[in-house]
Design goal:
By secondary structure, the chain is α+β, with helices and mostly antiparallel strands. It has a single domain, classed as Gcn5-related N-acetyltransferase (GNAT) (Aminopeptidase, 3-Layer(aba) Sandwich), CATH 3.40.630. Helix content is about 35%, strand content about 35%. The chain has 6 helices and 7 strands, in the order βαααβββαβαββα. It has a 7-stranded mixed beta sheet, sandwiched between helices. Strand 2 and strand 3 form a beta hairpin. The longest helix is centred in the middle third of the chain and has 15 residues. About 20% of the residues are buried. Bound molecules: coenzyme A (COA). Coenzyme A (COA) binds next to helix 2, strand 4, helix 4 and helix 5.
């Protein structure tokens, strides 16, 4: 198999057209949609328009991870609102349902955080997550993210209101969380 960037288990690269089917299935899976701020399913046509736009964007990127062993799709990471003046961005990750709980999100984040902090010059990375998403919160805490604020009842899901939690990671805290591994 062609050697690409990534970790010992994961080949990690920017999204390409050949990933779109896997990405749409991941996005439209009930167990993913329920955790996102926008709960709408996406169609192939909508995805195509989105793909055209994001492929040319200077402020957003999408990355895909596949198993080195057999090229199976593992998941995607989004990087948005890249702000090179203030050296920060928003980040997020969805892992394919069958691949969850195997440490892949930790590995995927570690690879991209290293890249964005140590090569791209970012100072701060931020994200939002439903405060009810305990798996994501544990993952982000483990990576060194700190809870910075709550937008109360910002998300309507399954007939009730959920808080949206803002979390942030500074480059110096990323180094500390790496040292404690
Ligand atoms: C949240 C998500 C990205 C985690 O991905 P993952 O590959 O399963 O995470 P990892 O295996 O790297 O585990 C990271 C940490 O998450 C937590 N975690 C993972 N699976 C968990 C589970 N089933 N129950 C509780 N915590 C869990 C643990 O703290 C784990 O660390 P540990 O095993 O060392 O204690 C994944 O569950 C997912 O894609 N969920 C749906 C979409 C989503 O919520 N995206 C994030 C939106 S903000």
């Amino acid at each position: 198999m062609k050697q690409t960037n990534g970790t010992s288990r994961l080949a990690i690269r920017v999204m390409e057209r050949c990933d779109l089917e896997d990405l749409r299935q991941l996005h439209n899976h009930d167990g993913t949609l329920a955790m996102l701020t926008d709960v709408q399913h996406i169609t192939e046509a909508q995805q195509e328009a989105w793909y055209q736009a994001i492929s040319l964007s200077k402020t957003s990127r999408r990355y895909v991870a596949r198993l080195r062993a057999d090229d199976s799709f593992v998941g995607m990471m989004r990087v948005d609102q890249i702000d090179l003046a203030n050296r920060n961005c928003f980040i997020g990750c969805d892992i394919s349902y069958e691949m969850r709980g195997k440490g892949f999100a930790t590995e995927f984040f570690s690879y991209l955080l290293n890249y964005y902090f140590n090569n791209y010059g970012l100072h701060r990375v931020q994200l939002v997550t439903l405060s009810s998403n305990s798996q994501a919160r544990r993952l982000y805490h483990k990576l060194g993210f700190v809870e910075e604020g709550i937008s109360r009842e910002a998300i309507y899901r399954d007939g009730s209101w959920h808080d949206l939690l803002a979390m942030g990671l500074l480059k110096r805290d990323w180094r500390k969380s790496e040292d404690s591994e």
